[in-house]
Amino acid sequence: MATTMASPSAEFVAHDQGKRYARRAARPDGHPAAPRDAAVPENDLTTTATEPAEPAPPAPPAGSTVVADGPPPAADPTPPAVARPKKKRLWITKILKRAGIWFGTLVVPRLYMMYMWFVYVTSRHEHRGCTPAILRERYGKGIFVLWHEEVFFVAYAFKQWHGSTLASHGAGGGLIAKMLQLCNFTVFRGGSSRSRKRRAADIVNDMVEYLNRRNDVIYGITVDGSTGPVYRMKNGAAKIAVRCQAPIGVEKTWCKRYYRFNNWDGTMIPLPFNHIIHLYGGPYLPPPHDADRATKKAYLREVEADLARLSCYARYEIEGKAPPAEWLAKFPEHVRESLPTDGGEFVLERAYDPVGQVPPTELGMQPLTEPDANAEEATP
């Protein structure tokens, strides 16, 4: 007897299709839901009439974003294209740099000479004490130490003494060398600017070698330069003095009218129609080569202390009043208590350094006469 299967009702088929389409839309493989009028295979009609109906998933609100479950999509392994910078024209930069150096070497030293000539010709200026001429005549050589704040004076103020100094082979050294040569300096090139940070030992060795080769060399060294701290003497000048057995002299310049740069040491620029004074003290004979460390350190501290006292004396000579307390506080603590608040007295010319262990006669030097604190030498 033939048996006939009853076909499912239309309501049952629609309900079953809705459940399967909802499950398919939530799959991680992202297959889209089939349209409602799509054909349904017979083998998928496995739901019986007694199975409870599941509610359809709620529709997302309008304007919202539906985020499907599952792992995030893989990132694109291809890196984004980066725009390559244009090739720099280094040859143009080099030409402009060389042109600037040439122009600076040609113009800046002459502008400096013109300005300082005008300042000195309109000002009253004097040199007093143990000048470089005295050290050269009686000792054959010498080293003058000064603070970096007066570096603008150095080339022009020392031009009458025909001093010697060290400059590098680089562009900056060429500019300084040209300015010093215009001021009657003998300039020798003792290094290369290819290495911006030359070791201090190399510079000392170059200066020692030159000082030992010549008999009439006078150095001028800013002992707290070139970056400070202000009014703190570094040991480079003392090392040269000991190795060359050359006496040290201290020098301080002060003026009534000046402009100060807003830098670490307040570099002084003299103004026209001024009163300028250059005071020199010394000589300070160095201890022998085989002196112990304590003796050499005492020598350095003695020179540093006298340079500080000479600074107070020079300022009092020009201003006629006690130096301000905030200025005195900049000096080292071990000399601050001995600094006179009223300028005090300073021996500008000494017979020999009391710290030194060798008297001048044993070094083949002629001792100086009794010092005269009021001695004054007119500027030629």
How do the strands and helices of this protein lay out in sequence?
Layout (H helix, E strand, L loop, with lengths): L9 H16 L64 H32 L2 E6 L2 H8 L2 E5 L4 H7 L6 E4 L3 H12 L3 E4 L10 H14 L4 E5 L13 H9 L3 E8 L2 E3 L7 E3 L4 E10 L8 H27 L5 H4 L4 H4 L44
Parallel strand pairs: 1-9, 2-5, 2-6, 3-4
Antiparallel strand pairs: 6-9, 7-8
Helix pairs in contact: 2-5, 6-7
Descriptive account of the structure:
With 380 residues, the protein is an alpha/beta fold. It has one domain (93-363): Glycerol-3-phosphate (1)-acyltransferase, CATH 3.40.1130. The chain has ten helices and nine strands. The strands form three sheets. It has a five-stranded mixed sheet with strand order 1-9-6-2-5. Helix 5 (171-182) links the parallel strand 3 (164-167) and strand 4. The chain is globular, with a radius of gyration of 44 Å. Mean pLDDT is 74; it is low at 1-7, 43-49 and 352-380.
CATH topology: Glycerol-3-phosphate (1)-acyltransferase
User: What spatial order of strands do you see in the largest sheet?
Assistant: 1-9-6-2-5
- What is the CATH first-level class name? Alpha Beta
The domain tally reads 1
Give the number of helices: 10
Instruction: Let me know the largest β-sheet.
Output: 5 strands, mixed
User: Residue-averaged pLDDT, rounded?
Assistant: 74
Series of H and E elements: HHEHEHEHEHEHEEEEHHH
What is the count of β-strands?
9
Name the shape in a single word.
globular
Kindly name the structural category: alpha/beta
Tell me roughly what share of residues is in helical segments.
25-40%
Portion of residues in beta strands equals: 5-15%
* Low-pLDDT sequence parts: 1-7, 43-49, 352-380
